[in-house]
Design goal:
Number of helices: 6
Mean pLDDT: 90
Order of helices and strands: HEEHHEEEEEEEEEEEEEEHHH
Number of domains: 1
GO biological process, one term: iron-sulfur cluster assembly
Protein name: Fe-S cluster assembly protein SufD
Domain SUF system FeS cluster assembly SufBD core: 136-359
Radius of gyration: 20 Å
Oligomer: single chain
Helix content: 10-25%
Family: Belongs to the iron-sulfur cluster assembly SufBD family.
Organism: Nocardioides piscis
Length: 393
């Protein structure tokens, strides 16, 4: 029995349907084109997706891909039987039309393979640079990490593109894996993506979703477990400017006992009609005794005209858990913090800048990749420079 088969068999035994994660199917015809009235689509501006959620043609890619290959790793594009064998390797059964279309229609897969016992000496960085926003396209990426391996993979998105993507991640037993996805697109880009991870027995998995650029960015970051003792840390950082829509959704499916998940997402908004959405869902199945989970979302409103939606959810099917909780807050600047700084001779604008950096700093440090941390601090500074912080009325 394969890893995927074992996960699916376990889920068949414990048939619990999450209201934010409807039943899936590989058959595209089982997924009608969303109208926006569906629960999982009601926040997303469908008219701005260039048909990626529906039936836009998946053309030949205009995204230039490049990567480094640290010793011990393999990165390559695969096609044919090998590509088909990787579809659903994470246990993913698509519950959206775009994900089902990607798995059914995209002929190739970008495979990142780190064998068992291998420890990468440096981060493996995949650079994806778009060059044509009018070209609708799709991609499938698989990251496979063997038992007791250790690796950091960074996927960096830049340029102009309209892309739907499915990323599947398999973390072997006892492995220690960090995956960082940076959405630093040009202002006109559209990015619709689903990340699905399967975490092995006693494995450690960290996923960081970082979104700054793009016209519309929506990312689903899901995790399930292939044995007891697995741990998942789901981190997110986003900064929306005028007119941008940035949407992050997570789903932690505790389908094995003594597993852990911890989600922390933070975002800032500035400019008219900047809109962010965070939806967090944790499902604790009957078999998942002794689990621990916590999800947290914080949003900082910097100017008038912004809107942040934040919806945490816990669905619990057993009372035998070690701990579960969630927190959500959306607010403007803390007047006490600003007063403290200004009372020490710091200007209002500089005080606001320091508060924003302090808001993000602890989360940035959790990413655990020094070069990425430095870049994020610089990017936050650049975002603040786009729109001079105004006094909050």
């Amino acid at each position: 029995m394969t890893v995927t088969d074992s996960v699916r068999s376990a889920l068949e035994v414990d048939k619990v349907e999450s209201h934010l994660n409807p039943p899936g199917s590989f058959d595209v015809t089982d997924h009608p084109v969303p109208t926006g009235r569906e629960e999982i689509w009601r926040f997303t501006p469908l008219k701005r997706l260039r048909g990626l959620h529906a039936d836009a043609e998946f053309n030949r890619s205009a995204i230039k891909a490049s990567w480094n290959t640290p010793d011990g790793a393999r990165v390559q594009g695969v096609t044919g039987d090998e590509a088909r064998s990787l579809r659903g390797i994470s246990g993913l059964v698509p519950n959206t039309r775009f994900a089902a279309r990607v798995l059914a229609e995209v002929p190739s897969t970008l495979l990142v393979d780190v064998p068992a016992e291998v420890e990468l000496a440096e981060p493996l960085v995949v650079q994806l640079d778009g060059h044509d926003v009018t070209n609708t396209e799709a991609g499938h990426v698989v990251m496979r990490f063997g038992a007791h391996s250790k690796a950091i993979v960074v996927v960096n998105h830049t340029g102009s593109a309209s892309v739907a993507a499915v990323v599947e991640i398999v973390v072997g037993d006892g492995a220690d894996v960090t995956v960082v996805s940076i959405q630093d697109w040009a202002d006109d880009a559209v990015h619709l993506s689903h990340h699905q991870a399967l975490v092995g027995r006693d494995a450690t998995y960290k996923h960081a979703a970082i979104s700054f650029g793009g016209d519309v960015v929506r990312m689903d970051a899901n995790v399930a477990y292939d044995g007891p003792g697995g741990s998942a840390e789901l981190l997110g950082l986003y900064f929306a400017d005028e007119g941008q829509h940035i949407e992050h959704r997570i789903f932690a499916d505790h389908n094995a006992p003594r597993t852990k998940s911890n989600a922390i997402y933070k975002g800032a908004l500035q400019g008219d009609k900047a809109h962010t959405v965070w939806v967090g869902n944790v499902l604790i199945r009957k078999v998942a005794e002794g689990i621990e989970t916590y999800e947290e979302n914080r949003n900082l409103i910097l100017t008038d005209g912004c809107h942040a939606d934040s919806i945490p959810n816990l669905e619990i099917e057993t009372g035998e858990i070690a701990g579960a909780g969630h927190a959500s807050a959306t607010a403007r600047f803390d007047d006490t913090q600003l007063f403290y700084l200004q009372s020490r001779g710091i200007s209002e604008k500089e005080s606001q800048r320091l508060v924003v950096h302090g808001f993000f700093n602890d989360l940035i440090r959790k990413v655990g990749v020094p070069s990425i941390e430095e870049r994020l601090l610089a990017t936050v500074e650049a975002e603040l420079a786009k729109n001079v912080l105004k006094e909050v009325q």
